[in-house]
Design a protein that fits this description.
CATH class of the largest domain: Alpha Beta
Number of helices: 10
Largest sheet: 6 strands, mixed
Radius of gyration: 19 Å
Bound molecules: ligand T3D
CATH superfamily of the largest domain: 2-enoyl-CoA Hydratase, Chain A, domain 1
Number of domains: 2
Oligomer: single chain
Length: 259
């Protein structure tokens, strides 16, 4: 059997591929654990790319592992979230380096919301984002009910969640749910270009940006200004800041070293 998660180290970044294409990369326990381990072990990588093998990105929980006609029913879904999905979302959020997601095909249920947890989301124009939960009697999870209203406003968030309608990659970009969408054939080269740029970028500034953007949702404006001052103070002491200013003054591209 092939590995459910493929990890490839490329220069200063890591590519993580969800690899159960025959199930549209739906997550079973083995795959959950392998995905978690991949995220926990990005080490000194300066950027991460997550994508899916085959025609799908991820179809969420493997429903083949749920059987209502057994004595084990009902499963404790609170525990499933706490033990499997939430750790993945928290790990993606907690990585200090940029996490790029290339949504190469259908992203359904928690598969969609794991993609949306990433820092910069690219998708094929014909990718499908589906909040499939209502179709099986569940609520959006893996952070979906938090992120959708913030990115889209209540009208679109509610519409997507309650109807389970398909949102194309191109429409997701138009709505501001994701960063950009591309023709299918161009998606991976665009993703490689972006992650390569991040891996050669000012790593400490990216970490600070991520931290501040995440804190913004829970901060009052005034305290957020204080937070910006603290993070910027640290950036001001980095080698990359000095290099960025030198490069600007010398009219040459900056060579960031990530510290
Ligand atoms: O349970 C908990 O732990 C709680 C947490 C839940 C988090 C969640 O993610 S809940 C949501 C779970 N996911 C879904 O409800 C999506 C189910 N899948 C679909 O609705 C459709 O498959 C898609 C819209 C994603 C894609 O449709 P389509 O027509 O492009 O492909 P398909 O033919 O339906 O799927 C291809 C194969 O993948 C098919 O297998 P087969 O017939 O070729 O042997 C299908 O059964 C399989 N597949 C797709 N999604 C899942 C799956 N197998 C298991 N689990 C899946 N989620």
């Amino acid at each position: 059997m092939s590995d459910p998660i493929i990890v490839e180290k490329v220069d200063h970044w890591v590519k993580i591929t969800l690899n159960r294409p025959e199930r549209l990369n739906a997550l079973n326990i083995e795959m959950h654990l392998a995905f978690r381990s991949a995220l926990e072990n990005v080490g000194t990588a300066r950027a991460v790319l997550i994508t899916g093998a085959g025609r799908g990105f991820c179809a969420g929980q493997d429903l083949g592992d749920r059987n209502p006609d057994t004595g084990d029913w009902p499963p404790d879904l609170g525990q499933t979230l706490n033990d499997y999905f939430n750790p993945l979302v928290r790990l993606i959020n907690g990585l200090s380096v940029p996490v790029v997601c290339a949504v190469n095909g259908v992203a359904a249920g928690a598969g969609a919301n794991l993609a949306l947890a990433c820092d910069v989301v690219l998708a094929a124009n014909n990718a499908r984002f589906i909040q499939a939960f209502s179709k099986i009697g569940l609520v959006p999870d893996a952070g979906g009910s938090w992120i959708l209203p913030r990115r889209l406003g209540m009208a679109r968030a509610m519409g997507l969640a309650l109807t389970g309608e398909v949102l194309s990659g191109s429409q997701a970009a138009e709505w501001g749910l994701i960063w950009k969408s591309y023709d299918e054939a161009e998606l991976m080269s665009a993703a490689y270009e972006l992650v390569t740029k991040f891996a050669a970028g000012p790593t400490a500034a990216y970490a600070g940006t991520k931290k501040l953007m995440q804190a913004a949702a829970g901060n009052l404006f005034d305290e957020h200004l204080d937070d910006e001052a603290i993070v910027q103070q640290a950036c001001g002491r980095s080698d990359d800041y000095a290099e960025g200013v030198r490069a600007f003054l010398a009219k040459r591209p900056a060579k960031f070293i990530g510290s």
